[in-house]
Predict the 3D structure of the following.
Amino acid sequence: MHVSFLGGPRPQRGVGVVAPFDFALDRELWRWVPDDISLHLTRTPFVPVEVSLDLARLVSEHETLHDAVRTLNAVAPEVVAYACTSGSFVGGVAGERAMCEAMTRAGEVPSLTTSGALLAALTELGARRIALVTPYTVSVTQSLEEYLAEADVEVTGRAFMGLTRHIWKVPYRDVVDMARQAVKGAVDALFISCTNLPTYDVIPQLEAELRIPVISANQVTMWAALRRLGTRAVGPYQALLGDTSHAHGGSGGESARRQGPVLPEEHQEGWS
């Protein structure tokens, strides 16, 4: 067959992603992206600091973000997302807004962060009382709770791992165990923090078990970025991405019960 019959490649729209230097889950981000969207990733410069509030501040400096976004300008993305939870909540709500403004000035395209996307997702779900799972130390976890409190979101239960490195190596079973510890009493949703913590396959499992919407850092980042393009993230049995996401009414229970069958473990990437 002559190559002219192929007709491609298919036109693509671009999403620029700025990630911390130790981000290891490029493939997970791609799993939320439809076929007509391309991700263009760049990373912040390496610094010899473990995961901490100090690192969160270093990787979110405006000069660092400016340089990263300018690098992405060469491929002309239509939106830029800063894929780091701690780096975007460490300065509080005002700091997150200032980061978006700095990135927008650098790239002259709409910009967003993971923590800003988190608040948008909670509003979408009508969730004001949440359970929280993080791989962080206690100080970083407390900083996230302070950020949420600024936005009038109450954390009713939490579980954290105290990790300062190699977060991407955490298996799904540990995430599930933490979720079960964190969800106490009536809550509107569960948030799993950190873009370096694998969550794609575990979300439908937890929604089926806990009967509440479950959202994660990478999921909300891709959901918000793609929504800016007027398109939708893809993901099976994930309440935030489904047609019923407006119908939770703050409880999430009935919608979660409509999510459909649970995926068998052997079909889940990364389950160990």
In short: Strands lie at 13-19, 37-43, 79-82, 111-113, 129-134, 154-160, 189-192, 214-216. The two ends are 43 Å apart (CA to CA).
